[in-house]
Amino acid sequence: MTTTKKFALLAILGTLLGTSLTACNTFEGAGQDVQAGGRAIERSADNVQKKM
């Protein structure tokens, strides 16, 4: 394998690794947002139930 091909392969692998790590943080943040939304809905439902 030539030096240019090795460099290209390492660059591609590095990019994929960096992208996957960023995606993990993005999905974690999205999960936290959904969880916070669920808690807000639960609190609203509890408040409505108390008023009844």
UniProtKB/TrEMBL annotation:
Coiled coil: none annotated. GO terms for biological process: response to toxic substance. PROSITE patterns: PROKAR_LIPOPROTEIN. Pfam families: Entericidin. InterPro entries: Entericidin. Residues 1-23 form the signal peptide. Keywords: Cell membrane, Lipoprotein, Membrane, Palmitate, Signal. Belongs to the EcnA/EcnB lipoprotein family. This is Entericidin A/B family lipoprotein.
